[in-house]
Amino acid sequence: MVTTLPGTETCSGRAPQNAASRDVYRQHYADGLATPLKERLKTYDSALESGDVHGVGQAAGTLGTEIRAYGRMVDIPRLYGCYDQQVLAHLQNAAKEFANALDSLSCATANMCNRKQSEVPSLIAQAAQQERAAVEAFNTYAAQFGGMEIPVPTTGARAWRTSAV
Prior knowledge:
The chain is mainly α. It has one domain (22-143). The chain has helices at 22-50, 53-73, 77-80, 85-109, 120-143. Helix 1 runs antiparallel to helix 2 (53-73), helix 2 (53-73) packs antiparallel against helix 4 (85-109) and helix 4 packs antiparallel against helix 5.
């Protein structure tokens, strides 16, 4: 999902004043971000569990694109409102770091971008750390208006389940 929204209005530098009620923002967040992100994370987890290197690459690439889009969407006042600027900045940084880790993983699965499939296990572990940080940042952001929480991944390292690498 790539979302294009007209206008250039952002929350950056704005006081946390919102035109709609928290209920409106909660519903927008649940429908437009939290629920789709939960589903995309499940798809990514399933790909990791399958051990299919190409499936992992596809899932990582798609999730990376969407995480970047979600990191931008939270800065659009009419979607979710404007809140604490530090929380917003932290979320955007965490989303970017996770997306970058997913890009590296996606590249490695295809032996592209100066990455090799032999790097996949370490990149999965690196992405797991970034995933946890990003999900926690989304949840901290959503807590400001009572938004839906996204399940935080377990702390255990993800295991790569194939010897094809």
